[in-house]
Amino acid sequence: MQPATACASSGLTIPWLRRCSSLRVKCSTSQRAHCASTSTADTAEPIEPIEPIDPIETDPEPDPEPFKLKPLPYPFNALEPHMSKETVEYHWERHHRGHVDSLNAIIQGTEFAEMELENMVLTSYNEGNPLPFFVHASQVWNHDFFWETMKPGGGGNPSNVLKYLIERDFGSLDELAKEIQNAALTQFGSGWVWLAYKAHRLGVGNDINPRPSKKDKRLVVVKTPNAVSPLVWDYYPLLAIDVWEHAYYMDYENRRGDYVSVFLDKLISWDVVSDRLKNAMFRASKREKMEKREMLLDKMKEAKLRVKAVDLRPTPKARPKMKRRQY
Amino acid sequence: MALRSVVSRKTLAPALRHYRSLTTFTLPDLPYDYGALEPAISGEIMRLHHQKHHQTYVTNYNKALEQLDAAVSKGDAKGVVQLQSALKFNGGGHVNHSIFWQNLKPVSEGGGEPPHGALGWAIDKDFGSLEALVKKINSEGAALQGSGWVWLALDKEQKILKVETTPNQDPLVTKGVSLVPLLGVDVWEHAYYLQYKNVRPDYLANIWNVINWKYASEVYEKESA
User: What catalytic activity does the UniProt entry give for this protein (chain B) (predicted)?
Assistant: First the structure.
């Protein structure tokens, strides 16, 4: 057993150092841990500090509540006497919150948790084969939309562009009200009634209108079952009336017609609807411009390819000249 | 070709023109008082359910039948087809609720007593136990989205009991022509909202106290004979 040797850099006696007769004894770099903690000599070789290992980028704790229940824009009793405090409270606190909680429970930790709500509704609809959490995502979106459609002291008449479009597409506000009533009463079961801005689209992959005009786009009244909304049909919703029974049963019992007419007379916020219309018209026209641009770009690409094909033919100059015989 | 269609219309027309009286439907009476099913279902719910909802279905069904009669007499195929959804909804509503009132019975008159006899054995055979059946119906009812019905059905062809759900007011036969309803539970919100608010599972748990198994047994024995 060789005697313990002293480390050249720190002077400490290290039992595991071995002396080789021809070499200077030196700590191996792997054993310098002791030097790093004990060395005080100025002549000590600069010791590379042990770099801390980069903490592995573990996924942070998944947020247990990717979606929060949006607060109402008014207090619970603000819509009295047309919609009682009880109804608003139960509707928001139990039904709306229930959907938010169910949605959070299902999507927590999945890739859907980072999506925007509207995107999630469209994705989970899955072209008519809805994923399990579609009902929750869609109902959260629908209810947010619904609360904002109403306001205390609502009612009155629409103005400006909205008024013009209503008169163009329905004839008058009364006609629109009649159509909404009809839709509500023929929505057999639970569902929603909507006024939507519809940019005329066929819903197939290449349905680009080559000559879009304001006349193609109309206001339409649509009714949807259960949790579906016209977002999935590529419409721009403007107003929503919840005709699930829980929305009106405590105030109107089975009289859905009365509820809808009071909604249109006393609860609706035409300002919000007008803003949504403005937004919808802007988005629709922007989208059409982009599509027109893309279509033109495609056409140009096609034209270039055609020109290239012509170039491939050999030009007369490319023919080799015949050599003259040397006489 | 045109001649042939004219000839066939002439032969059909007399058949269509024969006088047909339209049977209208009326709201059936409840075999018990509105408040007799408390505390499982409140009297207010029973009153509204019977006098308002069921009555509306009956009224609208009669209206739809009149319109159907007119459309059929005129030979208006488009009109006949357009009326189908109203007929299914209102007619289904009338049929389903008529069964529902028979499915309920006050506790004092035997509501909630478990089934004996043939139906009891069939339940044990097909579901294991009455508790298992109740659990299945409750879970299917709670999971039903929107409005609809949960049924305990007898499949006459296969001779087994099944638990089915139908949306909105679709009658049970839309799920299979050989299905006979033994028990139906209305899970539309109007059936429980005033009392249970949004807690449908509580309503489903409590309704078993007033379920009329005797009626279900009678229907079962009749249909499986």
Answer: 2 superoxide + 2 H(+) = H2O2 + O2
